[in-house]
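MODEL INPUT / OUTPUT PAIR
PAIR INDEX: 1
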Amino acid sequence: MVKAPLVVGYKGEIGRFILLGLLEDMPKANDIFCVDVNNSDDDVLERIEKSDTIFLCVPLQATATWLRKFRPALKGRIIAEQSSIKSFLYEDPEFADLRFLSMHLLFRPSATPVENRSGMVFSDRMPKAQVKAFGEQIGRALRTNLEFLQARRGPTYVRHDQMMARQQALVHRVLLSLADSLEDAGSLNYIGQRVCELATRLRQGDPTLYRMIQNNPHLEAEMEAFHKRLDCFPVDHPLRRIRAKPPQKKGRR
């Protein structure tokens, strides 16, 4: 399916990982194009014209700006965007005619063993069969299981952002807060050490990216549900699962 990929931002964490995977998987290296911030606009346009699939691996905060800048040349091409939050792309009328095929690698390549790699692919603008075929090809190239994400009702990008409000924004906030409490407690047990290690890994990431992850529009609902779980924690049966259905978000931006 992907025959002439362009990796935008190939020197970054995700872009470098995708480029190396494509180089290993594709028959000819000269079928692969790449650009970064050091390329001129003419360089970028030339490579866009030669590509069929664009892996957009620029920082989250730069994604919309890049799309606006090169939008006329992007029509008809698959844009495999890598943003941690998707709604700002799918809900922007300026991008309504772009063929987004959304990816999300749920790990940091430089710090995650192969056996722990996972991710997802989906699109609200492309046929399911095409998205599945893309996921199989790129998953093989990246040695990563890319799950095909679907929504039971409503747009899939909304389900993605709701999941990330819990799995990213909420988890990050809880881990960092808990680690701050544990680090003042002196000696740590095994679980406490693991919590602090995960918090250290988070602190080594991009602060701007993590700040934007915390601005996920669905985080407020997840925080409410988490506080309810804490409030109704079953002290007499501490290992029992706590079922607390997250409240429905009132409207979307």
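PAIR INDEX: 2
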Amino acid sequence: MYPGLVLTALAVVFLIPGIAAGGAFTFVLVLMAAIAVVGAAATLPSARAAGITPAPAQQPEAPAGGPLGRGAEPPPREVPVTPEEYLEARQQSQ
């Protein structure tokens, strides 16, 4: 979302002096403003479609720290691994 806003601001910054200056600057700066407008028009809807928001609606909760107690299970999607298993996995991935 922010790149679209930046491109919109750049379009305004380039468009006003480009029109006022005339001559070769008109061609260059107005063309750059048109490119920025097209970029902003493409970026803003695609960011919304991707679900990108400017700020998270909720702050994620921090996991409880510290070691797990006896009989406690690891969080879902986490598998307990020994250092040797970790080392073997690293060596195989390289």
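PAIR 2 NOTE: Helices lie at 2-21, 24-49, 83-93.
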